[in-house]
Amino acid sequence: MQKLCELNDIPDGDAIGVQTPGGEVVVVRQGRELHAYRNMCPHLGIELNFMPDVFLDTEHRYIQCANHGALFQIEDGLCVFGPCQGEALVRLDVQLIDNSVWLMPAHATKD
Ligand code: FES
Protein backbone atom coordinates (compact mmCIF):
# COMPACT_ATOMS: atom_id res chain seq x y z
CA MET A 1 0.00 0.00 0.00
CA GLN A 2 1.20 3.43 -0.90
CA LYS A 3 0.66 6.83 0.69
CA LEU A 4 -0.79 9.28 -1.84
CA CYS A 5 -1.18 12.51 0.12
CA GLU A 6 -2.66 14.08 3.21
CA LEU A 7 -6.43 14.61 3.38
CA ASN A 8 -5.90 18.36 3.63
CA ASP A 9 -3.97 18.36 0.35
CA ILE A 10 -7.34 17.85 -1.37
CA PRO A 11 -9.75 20.80 -1.18
CA ASP A 12 -13.11 19.58 0.16
CA GLY A 13 -15.49 19.06 -2.75
CA ASP A 14 -12.68 18.97 -5.29
CA ALA A 15 -10.09 16.57 -6.68
CA ILE A 16 -6.35 16.32 -7.23
CA GLY A 17 -4.09 14.14 -9.31
CA VAL A 18 -1.32 12.15 -7.63
CA GLN A 19 1.50 10.52 -9.59
CA THR A 20 2.22 6.89 -8.72
CA PRO A 21 4.47 4.28 -10.34
CA GLY A 22 1.32 2.83 -11.90
CA GLY A 23 0.20 6.15 -13.40
CA GLU A 24 -1.68 9.17 -12.16
CA VAL A 25 -4.50 8.64 -9.66
CA VAL A 26 -7.45 11.05 -9.42
CA VAL A 27 -8.63 11.46 -5.82
CA VAL A 28 -11.97 13.18 -5.19
CA ARG A 29 -12.79 14.39 -1.69
CA GLN A 30 -16.26 14.91 -0.21
CA GLY A 31 -15.67 15.68 3.44
CA ARG A 32 -13.92 12.58 4.80
CA GLU A 33 -15.23 10.44 1.94
CA LEU A 34 -12.79 9.69 -0.88
CA HIS A 35 -13.18 8.27 -4.38
CA ALA A 36 -10.20 7.39 -6.54
CA TYR A 37 -9.79 6.44 -10.19
CA ARG A 38 -7.06 5.98 -12.73
CA ASN A 39 -6.57 9.13 -14.76
CA MET A 40 -7.70 7.45 -17.95
CA CYS A 41 -10.83 8.14 -19.94
CA PRO A 42 -12.58 4.97 -21.19
CA HIS A 43 -13.34 6.79 -24.46
CA LEU A 44 -9.80 6.91 -25.87
CA GLY A 45 -7.63 5.68 -22.99
CA ILE A 46 -6.01 9.09 -22.52
CA GLU A 47 -5.76 11.40 -19.50
CA LEU A 48 -8.93 13.16 -18.41
CA ASN A 49 -7.50 16.61 -17.72
CA PHE A 50 -5.67 19.39 -19.54
CA MET A 51 -4.85 21.45 -16.43
CA PRO A 52 -3.24 20.03 -13.28
CA ASP A 53 -5.79 19.06 -10.63
CA VAL A 54 -8.80 20.11 -12.75
CA PHE A 55 -10.99 17.02 -12.92
CA LEU A 56 -14.51 18.15 -11.98
CA ASP A 57 -17.17 20.03 -13.92
CA THR A 58 -17.83 23.67 -13.01
CA GLU A 59 -20.47 22.72 -10.43
CA HIS A 60 -18.25 19.98 -8.96
CA ARG A 61 -21.01 17.40 -9.41
CA TYR A 62 -19.22 15.12 -11.87
CA ILE A 63 -15.74 14.12 -12.96
CA GLN A 64 -15.39 15.60 -16.44
CA CYS A 65 -13.10 14.56 -19.27
CA ALA A 66 -11.58 17.69 -20.79
CA ASN A 67 -11.14 16.01 -24.17
CA HIS A 68 -14.75 15.49 -25.27
CA GLY A 69 -16.75 16.46 -22.20
CA ALA A 70 -17.76 13.05 -20.86
CA LEU A 71 -19.26 13.22 -17.35
CA PHE A 72 -18.65 10.51 -14.73
CA GLN A 73 -20.46 10.00 -11.43
CA ILE A 74 -18.10 10.76 -8.57
CA GLU A 75 -19.32 7.87 -6.42
CA ASP A 76 -18.81 5.03 -8.91
CA GLY A 77 -17.09 6.45 -12.00
CA LEU A 78 -19.96 5.55 -14.34
CA CYS A 79 -20.11 7.71 -17.47
CA VAL A 80 -23.59 9.26 -17.67
CA PHE A 81 -22.97 11.66 -20.57
CA GLY A 82 -20.65 11.72 -23.55
CA PRO A 83 -19.09 9.35 -26.07
CA CYS A 84 -18.35 6.61 -23.51
CA GLN A 85 -21.76 6.68 -21.79
CA GLY A 86 -22.35 3.42 -19.92
CA GLU A 87 -18.62 2.74 -19.49
CA ALA A 88 -16.77 3.60 -16.31
CA LEU A 89 -13.49 4.90 -14.96
CA VAL A 90 -11.18 2.33 -13.35
CA ARG A 91 -11.91 2.55 -9.65
CA LEU A 92 -9.10 2.29 -7.11
CA ASP A 93 -9.31 1.47 -3.44
CA VAL A 94 -8.13 4.29 -1.19
CA GLN A 95 -8.42 4.55 2.57
CA LEU A 96 -8.03 7.35 5.04
CA ILE A 97 -5.71 6.42 7.90
CA ASP A 98 -4.88 9.13 10.45
CA ASN A 99 -5.69 11.88 7.92
CA SER A 100 -3.38 10.35 5.31
CA VAL A 101 -4.73 8.96 2.03
CA TRP A 102 -3.46 5.49 1.15
CA LEU A 103 -3.80 3.56 -2.08
CA MET A 104 -4.59 -0.03 -1.25
CA PRO A 105 -3.27 -2.89 -3.39
CA ALA A 106 -5.64 -4.19 -6.04
CA HIS A 107 -7.48 -7.23 -4.79
CA ALA A 108 -6.92 -10.51 -6.53
CA THR A 109 -10.01 -11.80 -8.26
CA LYS A 110 -11.80 -14.29 -6.08
CA ASP A 111 -12.76 -17.66 -7.55
S1 FES B 1 -11.25 11.05 -24.39
FE1 FES B 1 -12.59 11.42 -22.72
S2 FES B 1 -14.47 11.91 -23.65
FE2 FES B 1 -13.13 11.50 -25.31
Apparent shape: globular
Number of domains: 1
Write the H/E string, N to C. EEEEEEEEEE
Strand elements, count? 10
Major sheet characteristics: 4 strands, antiparallel
* End-to-end CA span: 23 Å
Helix tally equals 0
Radius of gyration from CA coordinates: 13 Å
Question: Could you tell me the mean pLDDT?
Answer: 95
Describe the strand arrangement of the main beta sheet, using strand numbers. Answer: 2-3-4-8
How would you sum up this structure, described in words?
The chain is mainly β. It has a single domain, classed as Rieske Iron-sulfur Protein (3-layer Sandwich). Helix content is 0%, strand content 40%. The mean pLDDT is 95. Bound molecules: FE2/S2 (inorganic) cluster. The site of FE2/S2 (inorganic) cluster has 11 residues, from loops.
In short:
The protein is an all-beta fold and about 110 residues long. It is built from no helices and ten strands.
Which key features would you list for this structure?
Rieske Iron-sulfur Protein; globular; binds FE2/S2 (inorganic) cluster; mainly beta; single chain; 111 residues; 3-stranded antiparallel β-sheet; 4-stranded antiparallel β-sheet
What's the SSE blueprint?
Elements: E1 2-6, E2 15-20, E3 23-30, E4 33-38, E5 62-64, E6 71-73, E7 79-81, E8 91-92, E9 94-97, E10 100-103
Antiparallel strand pairs: 1-10, 2-3, 3-4, 4-8, 5-6, 6-7, 9-10
Bound molecules: FE2/S2 (inorganic) cluster (FES).
Residues 41, 43-44, 46, 65, 67-68, 70, 82-84 line the site of FE2/S2 (inorganic) cluster.
